[in-house]
Write a structure and sequence with these properties.
44% strand, single chain
């Protein structure tokens, strides 16, 4: 007499393969889902910029922060009406009390986020990608 028996092992193996493939799939481009961490190196266009270490852009559902050269300065912003524009800013005063701003403006570029960073002593551009886990 022949009978069929459910074999859970092949099913479990198949689910494991599907899970591994989905984990390996590339993440959504920033034009579809920008939320998360993005890192890259500033490239100086003019002046003296923090280029020794990577910079980090963090995009939440509402808030944005950019840390140039991953140092102590953190530029902050709020996502506005344009979902493809990321603006962060830090307002400071110089030694004479004169106000100035440090600004980051970013936008999706394929699977990356491009941007412009500006400070009184620096102008730079950057291309950031999601860090590998």
């Amino acid at each position: 007499m022949s009978y069929s028996r459910f074999r859970p092992l092949p099913c479990v193996a198949l689910l494991g393969v599907i899970g591994a493939l989905s984990a390996c799939s590339s993440p959504q481009p920033p034009s579809k889902d920008p939320v998360g961490l993005w890192t890259g190196a500033l490239v100086t266009d003019e002046g003296s910029c923090p280029t020794n270490t990577d910079s980090t852009l963090q995009i939440g559902s509402r808030a944005i922060s950019f840390t140039p050269g991953d140092n102590a300065l953190v530029l902050k912003g709020v996502r506005g009406a344009d979902p493809h524009h990321y603006h962060a800013q830090l307002d400071l005063k110089d030694a004479q009390g004169k106000p100035y701003s440090i600004v980051f403006d970013g936008y999706p570029v394929g699977n990356a986020i491009g941007g412009i960073y500006g400070a009184p002593t620096c102008r730079a551009h950057i291309v950031m990608t999601r860090p590998n886990h």
